[in-house]
Design goal:
The protein is an alpha/beta fold. Helices cover 37% and strands 19% of the residues. The chain is built from 12 helices and 9 strands. It has a 7-stranded mixed β-sheet with strand order 4-3-2-5-6-9-7, with helices on both faces. The longest helix is centred in the middle third of the chain and has 13 residues. The radius of gyration is 21 Å and the shape is elongated. The C terminus is likely disordered.
Length: 274
């Protein structure tokens, strides 16, 4: 059988290190939820997952779908594995924010180019309970950072709104074929059952638009400067506070104060006269 080559257009880097695969299995949440795997690739992680629970896998590469159908013929026939061939984001968009119709844990080695979008969709998916996902280390840091750390971002605020995140494994390029140019990390996101806050994501995009500038300056591009100053003062935040120095709770408070002047669309409002 011809060896399957990784395709650059799908951001494929096949995880081959057996030690890392075992570490991922050991770090999995101890639940009875259905397992979902996105981008199973050659099936190295899938082989471990189907031994634990039934798996629903989503693969965009038709060549890999054929490979998986052959490699896991027995598991598919016994309903231990279900494979959906196609774009997982399109399925999310067409399923009312729910990837599957039962509570599930997401365990996956995600392609770098789409990892952030997948995690954000899973954060919004009420059926997704937990995530254990391999991503670029820089992305993992943005999801798991705490307020005050340079990596603290809108991604961390959105994650802390519905759960908590921590990096459990750092993985070198040599663990993959072909090896990527950067380190990877496995991040565990445990959701707490709280619903996402509607409109918060777009608000945070404004707040973190230019991380090196002050939070006041960023917010003033969309809200009247005087109202931003009042909001910050009411929360004992200084005019010079930076986006990464503001906590998730404070962002929720700011959003609640300013959302009456914010319709969720990214546009500049009319400034009040000074």
């Amino acid at each position: 059988m011809t060896e399957i080559q990784a395709k650059k257009k799908f951001g494929q880097n096949f995880l081959k290190d057996s030690t890392v695969l075992e570490q991922i299995i050991q770090a999995m949440p101890k639940t009875t939820h259905k397992l979902v795997e996105i981008g199973p690739g050659l099936g190295d992680l899938t082989h471990h997952l189907v031994k634990i629970r039934s798996v629903v896998a989503f693969e965009v590469d038709t060549d890999l779908c054929k490979h998986l159908a052959t490699a896991f013929e027995n598991e598919i026939s016994s309903n231990e594995l279900t494979i959906h061939c196609g774009d997982v984001l399109e399925r999310w968009n067409g399923a009312g924010n729910c990837l599957v119709d039962a509570p599930y844990d997401l365990v996956a080695n995600l392609p770098y180019y789409i990892a952030t979008n997948i995690i954000l969709n899973a954060l919004d998916d009420p059926q997704c309970q937990n995530m254990l996902v391999m991503v670029q280390k820089e992305v993992a840091d943005k999801f798991s950072a705490q307020a005050g750390e340079k990596a603290f971002s809108a991604l961390a605020v959105l994650t802390q709104t519905v759960g908590r995140a921590r990096t459990v494994i750092t993985v070198p390029p040599q663990a993959f074929n072909p090896p990527p140019k950067v380190d990877s990390a496995v991040v565990l996101i445990e959701k707490n059952g709280k619903a996402p806050v509607e409109g918060l994501s777009k608000f945070l995009k404004i707040a973190f638009a230019q991380p090196r500038k002050t939070l006041a300056k960023n917010l003033s591009t969309h809200f009247p400067k005087e109202e931003v100053a009042k909001a910050l003062e009411s929360l004992d935040l200084t005019p010079t506070v930076r986006p990464h120095q503001t906590t998730t709770f404070q962002y929720h408070q700011l959003f609640n104060i300013l959302k009456g002047m914010f319709d969720g669309r990214e546009k500049r409002p009319k400034r009040s006269k000074s």
